[in-house]
Design a protein that fits this description.
The complex is a heterodimer of chains A (316) and B (113). By secondary structure, chain A is α/β, with parallel strands linked by helices. Chain A has eight helices and 14 strands. Chain B has two helices and six strands. In chain B, the strands form two sheets. A three-stranded mixed β-sheet of chain B has the order 2-1-6, covered by helices on one side. In chain B, strands 4-3-5 form a three-stranded antiparallel β-sheet, with no helix packed on it. In chain B, strand 1, helix 2 and strand 2 form a beta-alpha-beta unit. The chains are: A alpha/beta (316), B alpha+beta (113). Chains A and B meet through strand 7, helix 1, helix 6 and helix 7 of A and helix 1, strand 1, helix 2, strand 2 and strand 5 of B.
Chain lengths: 316, 113
Amino acid sequence: MCTTCGCGTGHTLIGGHALKQRKAGGVQVQYRVPDHSAHDHDHVHTHGEQDRLPQPIPQTDEGANVENNSLTRAIDFGAGPAGAHAPGLTQARMVKIERDILSKNDGYASENRSYLAAHSIFALNLVSSPGSGKTTLLVKTINALNGSIPLAVIEGDQQTDNDAARIRATGAPALQINTGKGCHLDAHMVGQAMQQLSLQDDSLLLIENVGNLVCPASFDLGEAHKVAILSVTEGEDKPLKYPDMFCASDLMLLNKCDLLPYLEFDADLAVENARKVNPNIQVIRISATSGDGMEEWLEWIKVGCEKTVKEKACDE
Amino acid sequence: MHEMSLAEGIVQLVEDAARADGCTRVKAVWLEIGQLAAVEKEALRFCFDAVTRDGIAEGARLEIIETAGQGWCMKCEANVVVTALYEACPICGSYQIEVTGGNEMRVKEFEVE
């Protein structure tokens, strides 16, 4: 795709086909410049050819554009960014920054992680699509832990306080973050929520992310692990369809396993697919309703909490 | 649509660096986006145009340099090219691949007047 004008094929596929250019009132709408002839193509590529990487505009020391065509080899001093030429001066300047786009979020995440480590708090970021049973699983987990580990919950949803209310009904402290139009929690939101929750030392922090199997994958919150929850009422190929999330997670909870006898869901295939995307992912088959697999999940949490406490002791 | 957050991140980085550098207008921004990064480039362009409005990067051109995905095949014990997270090793067909590159999202540089 031409990265100057947005023409050509993109990476959004509908039914396996590239996204069509938008039309408004019968007129074709392009993302940037309406017509190729309307921009002078000083970027290096030819339309109709395969995608090429965009290159910075080639310039001489004095800011002239160099046309590298054997037939029309010419140096044009008027085609530079300033449209004019001053001896010895470049007309445009490049500022190198080389920063990660998420560096701001990662900065907050690293502050959260330091705080959590200093207070030996084991934090988990629970991610899944909506309706996978995250909140029910959390409620059952809290009840099963029965106060053996002090814990707090941060709930992320676009709207409503419903989930936090369900958690608070168990007696555990919970804070709801409403992201409004946002589709994920970020480290800044979680940092603020952590302050408001006044977390205990040597505790467990469960962060239930917004139900979304795409966006939360990229945002580090400072957690020890992302835990992906996949329910058997979804599809075995979810890990392949949404690979980023399963790649970013260390543990997959295959939830609602009590329903397996009633469904045509191949649990082994789902696990195999998750491991195709992330060969290191751990899997626990669980049912929040019947309680199957809960013991293994609670043990996994306890081991994590103990490890966090030990790590803090080693640092001191 | 986390691309809106990413676009805001880009614009913040660029505006902060541009101000520190004393420039008042940003004409183009070069990003390096790995093939395996969780970014939809068309959505990112759309959001970039929206969030640059009324700032010093308004109308700036967004250039995206795509970098190839790389992985380490545990079976072959070799570096292999990975085009998607769910793909098998092109040499041995195993899925025991750890992604080692091509998932970055960086602002490389920008052009100022």
